[in-house]
Inverse folding.
């Protein structure tokens, strides 16, 4: 069970604007904010998502092979969130569509280069 997922960022302000707009589409809001990190959730104590300035003082870099998957309510929401991410400055890593039986997903990289997907388990 995932409690929260964290991604690094080189620019907390830019990243916050991106994720405020994107995650609001999933009814998430900021639930904690400090000088070096921000956390979003849909409910207190539920799964959360956060961005952080690297704690070790070294420059930010994208984790190789790291990806965060966001659950959508249906395939239309996958399409909408993928398009919204691109509008907000994300780069496309795979247009929305069925990847396997019942697995509908769209992939993108946020402005820091972190890879995410939005998916819905459905029937083709």
């Amino acid at each position: 069970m995932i409690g929260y997922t964290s991604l690094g960022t080189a620019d907390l302000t830019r990243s916050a604007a991106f994720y405020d707009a994107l995650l609001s589409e999933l009814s998430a809001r900021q639930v904690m904010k400090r000088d070096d990190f921000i956390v979003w959730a849909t409910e207190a104590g539920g799964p959360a998502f956060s961005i952080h300035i690297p704690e070790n003082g070294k420059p930010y870099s994208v984790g190789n092979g790291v990806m965060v998957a966001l659950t959508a309510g249906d395939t239309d929401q996958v399409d909408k969130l993928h398009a919204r991410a691109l509008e907000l400055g994300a780069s496309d890593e795979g247009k929305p569509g069925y990847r396997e039986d019942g697995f509908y997903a769209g992939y993108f990289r946020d402005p820091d280069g972190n890879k995410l997907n939005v998916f819905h388990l459905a029937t083709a």
About this structure: Residues 4-55+67-121 form a domain with the 2,3-Dihydroxybiphenyl 1,2-Dioxygenase; domain 1 fold (CATH 3.10.180.10). The longest helix spans residues 12-24.
